[in-house]
Amino acid sequence: MLFNTPAFEQLVDALRRLPGVGKRSAERLALHLLSAPGEEALSLSEAIVEARRRITRCSQCCNLTDRDPCAICAHPGRDHGLICVVEHPSGAMAIEKAGAYKGLYHVLHGALSPLEGIGPDELAIDALLRRISGTVREIIVATNATAEGEATALYLSRVIGQRFGTAVTRIAHGVPMGSGLEYADDATLAHALEGRKQL
Fold it and tell me: Which superfamily, per CATH, for 6-54?
């Protein structure tokens, strides 16, 4: 039987390290890769190696890119006076897909978490501080609505306010469109009320 063989378990363990992949999903993926034609698995491994070789961090915003600086940092039509700070590249992708934001980004690659040993030195905070100049008028903090994300937002607000006096804002957190109030948790409702604006 394939289960409990070292090679299969090693593949399952590697797949389980991917975000959102549990043991059963990892087993299904492993079985698919092993049952598929050899070219399919080889194509996947080559795509991963090629992506790792070609994609790096932008020297300005620390987002993932295949050129340096990235297309957003190099775009003359973007508002270079706005920098939106996110925890991970996926945050920048989500905001960019929404199509409403036309400024720049900065990716921290994590959030402050003293219990996990993640302090300011483990994040791309120094790179952000080096970017702030007289032309930057606002830093928009779009970290996640978690304890770590809130701690990171407060830290950035304090450091940037003390050093530069640049405006630091926080994205509003609230009730999702199409959802009822009865489905929102207490913290979401509290944030929604705090972030209210005049109609």
Answer: RecR Domain 1 (1.10.8.420)
Residue tagged 């604006």 (tokens): 197
**pLDDT for 148 beyond 80:** yes
Contact assessment for residue 69 and residue 60, using Cβ atoms and an 8 Å cutoff: yes
Count the neighbouring beta carbons within 10 Å of the beta carbon of residue 165: 9
pLDDT tens-digit map of 54-105: 999 999 999 999 999 999 999 999 999 999 999 999 999 999 998 999 999 9
Domain ranges of the chain: 6-54, 76-193
* pTM: predicted TM-score of the whole model, two decimal places: 0.84
Integer Cα distance of 25 and 94 in angstroms: 25
Q: What is the bridge-based pairing of β-strands 79-86 and 138-141?
A: parallel
Burial of 151 (0-12, 13-18, 19+ CB in 10 A): middle
What is the mean pLDDT of the segment spanning 29-52?
93
Alpha carbon of residue 108 to chain centroid: 8
CB 63 within 8 A of CB 105: yes
